[in-house]
What does this fold into?
Amino acid sequence: MVRIATWLLLTLLWMGIFMPVFAADWAGVDETVVEHYAEEYGRSARDPYINTDQGDLLLFVFTLAGAAGGFIAGYNWRKFFVEEGKGESRKGEVHA
Amino acid sequence: MKKFSTKCLTGALVFLPIPAYAMHITEGILPPAWAGLWWAVAVVFVFFGIRQVDRRKKEVEGYLPLLGIAGSAVFVLSCFPIPVPITGTCSHPAGTGMSAVLLGPFASVLVASVGLLIQALFMAHGGLTTLGGNILSMGVAGSFAGWIFFKGGRKVGLSLFAAGFAAGFAADIFTYLTTSVELGLALHGAHPLTEVITKIFVAFLPTQGPLAVLEGVVTGGLIRYVHQHRPEILVRMGVVKTVQPVQPV
It folds into this structure.
């Protein structure tokens, strides 16, 4: 099952990254759906109060957020699955 | 230390998002009355989320590291645009199905709210006036749909992977359904409400359908992974009752 899941995941990734299709602009659904219908029904989006969507600033913010999120996830993953796992197996050895 | 750094770096690279707009309702789209209402509803759920975290961190050993993993995963996944070639557009998973199963639905609302607040403040993603609406769709609807489908799936005898798949899939779909309802209620004007909601939801589906399947696979796979490697964690979190042998999918 893990193998099937891995293949499915790889297929989806491949479809997503390496298969360019008809003049796709890869806009987000907030633009293609949310803003599109909002405008159709008379509302339009406004700039965020803190607008980081300027030049490469947004790239910086997203990179920083991704790195921080990945670090926190990795740190806690290790704490939870590696360090605690060792503790559990030590407890098991003592009881055995 | 070297292994630790490698794991952190791998995590960071795997989850590293690229800048793009994605799913959340953009700043200014909801009229003030609706924005205020969704804020009020969201605050109630966030309050119960804080209480659930406060209670469970005392009761369940290792709850906080798991909160850290699930919280950062929800944050990163919800600003991680994935291209869908069928439509040529991008959207992102919610991650709240996974966090609801592991942490509990109210705690999952809390972690989603923190993620959405950071995105609204600093990442031009969503908005402060629409934050309540976004918490309601991704946090509340996503978490509760995921949790209910997981529990329901287990009750009818689904394997952990299948129930996890249902949780991830439902969390994603119900997030967008709720977004459609929020937009429909706020924007329909003289048009029939159900027609507007259906129109918006149907427009989401070609992009979001494949991502919901992907999210289901990831959620089911993660729960199965934890069950294979540290089953006692799932017992501790109340996801399964006892440590059982791994079931066939």
